[in-house]
Design goal:
Trna Endonuclease, Chain: A, domain 1; five-stranded mixed beta sheet; rod-shaped; alpha/beta
């Protein structure tokens, strides 16, 4: 037992020096221990494989994310396009409804006034060459009521804004100038009239008949 222990201590003390001096001993010891421990090249190879697998996983996840993101973007785009289509359709329907309502009311008013009250109802459409009404040459449309020499200029619209009210005033001025005749009354008939448009009407002497059948006469004598 003592001899074995002394031999072990001797090997521990002398082996490092022997391995430094004798290459064959060093290679022999490394060969013996290689079974228990992976060498540097094998360790690096394993590490490289792990990195490669991680990179492949990352690239695969990126491709999946990009594919999902594209699907999501396509879906959002489709929803936006569908929404815009619906908005356009609703807007167009609203515009047509407004035009049809105006024309229907105009036709009904004409039938009632002409047949029952002897009032002449005209819808004129004249060309403004100098752009007095809209700032550029364009057609100017007005509804006109004539009875016993009285001239009434009308604007029949589904809605009236402040700018619409000023435009109607310019229309009446255009007609009066072209035909050398002053209007006895100026009327706006609309179910929806903006509050600011009401104020303009009061200032310009325009009578407003809106959804509550409430007359809003201007400064009439």
């Amino acid at each position: 037992m003592m001899e074995n222990q002394e031999m072990i201590e001797l090997i521990r003390r002398e082996l490092p020096g022997i391995m430094k001096r004798h290459r064959e001993i060093r290679e022999w010891v490394l060969q013996l221990t290689r079974v228990q421990y992976a060498d540097k090249q094998e360790t690096e190879s394993r590490f490289d494989r792990v990195l490669e697998e991680l990179q492949l996983d990352r690239e695969a996840n990126t491709r999946k994310w990009d594919a999902n993101q594209k699907t999501l973007n396509d879906l959002v785009t489709a929803i936006k396009n569908q929404t815009e289509t619906h908005k356009s359709s609703i807007g167009a329907l609203g515009a047509r409804w407004g035009l049809y309502s105006e024309q229907s009311f105009r036709n009904g008013l004409k039938a009632i006034l002409e047949k029952s009250f002897g009032v002449e109802v005209l819808n004129i459409n004249e060309y403004d060459e100098t752009g007095e009404v809209f700032g550029h040459p364009d057609q100017v449309e007005l509804d006109i009521l004539v009875q016993d020499g009285m001239l009434i200029l009308c604007e029949l619209k589904s809605s009236m804004s402040k700018s619409d009210m000023y435009a109607f005033e310019r229309k009446t001025a255009f007609y009066e100038k072209r035909h050398h005749r002053k209007a006895d009354r100026k009327l706006v008939i609309s179910p929806m009239v903006d509050d600011r448009a009401q104020q303009v009407a009061q200032k310009l002497g325009i009578e407003v008949y809106s959804h509550a059948n409430e007359a809003k006469p201007g400064n009439l004598n």
